[in-house]
Amino acid sequence: MRLDKFLADGGFGTRKEVKRLIKSGAAAVNGVTEKDAGRNVSGSDNVTVNGKSAVSREFVYIMMNKPQGYVSATEDKHYPVVTELLDESYKRFAPSPVGRLDIDTEGLLLLTNDGALNHRLTSPSKNVYKTYFAMLDNEAEDKDAETFAGGMEFKDFTAKSARLTICENRREVFIEIAEGKFHQVKRMCARVGKNVEYLKRVAIGPLELDESLLPGEYRELDEKELELLKNC
Ligand code: URA
Q1: Domain RNA-binding S4: where (predicted)?
Q2: Which residues pair with residue 174 across a beta bridge?
Q3: Which end of the chain has fewer CB atoms within 10 angstroms, the N or the C?
Q4: CB-based contact 79:71 (threshold 8 Å)
Q5: Which residue among 9, 45, 76, 102 is the active-site one?
Q6: Distance (Å, rounded) from C-alpha 174 to C-alpha 188?
Q7: What is the best residue among 121, 157, 183, 192 to mutate for testing ligand 1's pocket, by most ligand atoms within 8 Å of CB?
Q8: What are phi and psi of 129, to 5 degrees?
């Protein structure tokens, strides 16, 4: 197989991107830098990119700062979907969003084709807490934090004990919930008489949003982040 195809299949970018990568001298075959994208490689060759093994991979794990105006889905009849923001080299893996953020919610959204991890992170029984930053239309009160801590009954589900942390100006709060039901944060805030004016997810379990990502930007998880998620 051609080296550029080998690397594109391995998720290192589109054919055009990997050609550029190879030209830059980042790829090596059996320890020798290879700048010829058409060089033939086989399974017995040791192909590396920037010194790291370039074996084809099965899964992709992407952290996105979801922008407002996009639906957390792979297709939708009326609105743009988050997967449209991905480069072709990632679309090839057919990743799906892990859980859902409302169309007007920003922040940490994971996308992966690893169904087992997706299930584990979204299953309420696994108790993976998600942290949101919210701007409320009214000041939060200390008694609201107690109401959140006691859990809440809704007609379609019971929210487990949740943590409400009130910032100094009291209209800004952090909310940690174990589930991720439809409009859950907004509904819990409404229960204590507040409307959410702005909502952003900042963490899933131990994984925090990389604040250097602007809305609409994304990057792959690094090994440490992936370990954190797999072990949480
Ligand atoms: N809760 C909400 O109300 N909206 C979201 O997007 C996520 C959690």
Answers
A1: 1-60
A2: 133, 165
A3: N
A4: yes
A5: 102
A6: 13
A7: 183
A8: -75, 140
Q: Where are the alpha helices (DSSP H) in 71-183?
A: 88-91, 115-122, 142-149
Tokens of 28: 């090596």
Q: Is the pLDDT of residue 173 over 70?
A: yes
Q: 4 an active-site residue?
A: no
Q: Is the CB of 102 under 6 A from ligand 1?
A: yes
What does the alpha-carbon distance between residue 141 and residue 194 come to, in Å, rounded to a whole number?
10
Nearest-CA residue for ligand 1 atom 2 is: 183
The DSSP annotation for 160-204 comes to PP-EEEE-TTSSEEEEEES---TTHHHHHHHHTT--EEEEEEEEE
- Using most ligand atoms within 8 A of CB, pick from 65, 68, 71, 101 the residue to mutate for ligand 1: 101
